[in-house]
Amino acid sequence: MSVLKGRGNLLTIHHSALGSRPTDDRTGGATTNTDSGVAALVATVMDEVADASAVMDWAEDEIARAIRRHSDHADALYHSFGLIRPRDIGPGMGSEFVYRSHAAELLGRVAAGADTRPATAAELCLVCCEASLRTPMHGPTAGVYFRMWLRAFPDRPITPGQADEQVHYEKLYGTQIDDLERTLRQKAADPRRQFRDIDCPGKHYGIRVACRYATTPPVPAPAVVDPAIANGRAAR
Asked: Using one digit for the tens of pLDDT, what is the confidence trace for 204-227?
C-alpha cells in the first residue's frame, strides 16, 4: 500500500476579513458584508489541485488511519475505497485538505454504520463555493458555508476570528442554518454512494486475512516447523 507522507507546502490562505458581524435582521435579507470572506474560502479551496494518483494515495492513507481508529470495523473500512472516490462536483475536491476531510467523514460513517449517501461537509463547501461565484452569500446561506468550513477544516480557519464570527451567525440564524444544512446534505447526496455486494478473495494488501466479506474461507498459513525438530523426527 502506498501511503502519502504529506506535502511540505501549505495552501496559501487569503487573509481577507470575513467582514462585519451580521446585523440582527432575522429575515436573512440584510447585507452582512461577507463577500470578502466567501471569496477567501473560494480561493483557498482552489489553491492546490492534485492529480489522480495523489488522490489514490490520500484515499489509502485515510483508510489506514480509519482502520487504526476503528480496528473492529477494519474489514468494512478496507472495502470502502469505492465509497470515498472523489465526486465530480468541482476541482476543489482535488485539493488534499478538502479530499481528506471528505474521506475521513465518510469512513467515520462506515465505522458508525451511518448512511454514507448524504453530502459531506467538504462537499457542501464545494457546493457553496460554486454558488458563491454566481451570487453573493449572506445571512443563513453564508452561515451554513462558514459552519461547514469550520466542521470540515477546523485547522484551516480563513482568519483567526472566523470561529468568533460563526458564533454570531449561529445566534442570529442558527435554526435557519440547521434547516438549510439538512436540505443541502440531502439535495447534494450521492444515491449511489453505498455498499454493494463485496467480493473479497480473503486477502487485504496481498495478505491472507479472515475478512467477513471473504467469498471463500481463508487458507491458514503453513505451520512453521523448527528444522532441528523436523530432523529429529526423521531420525526416529
From this structure: 989 999 999 987 665 565 565 555
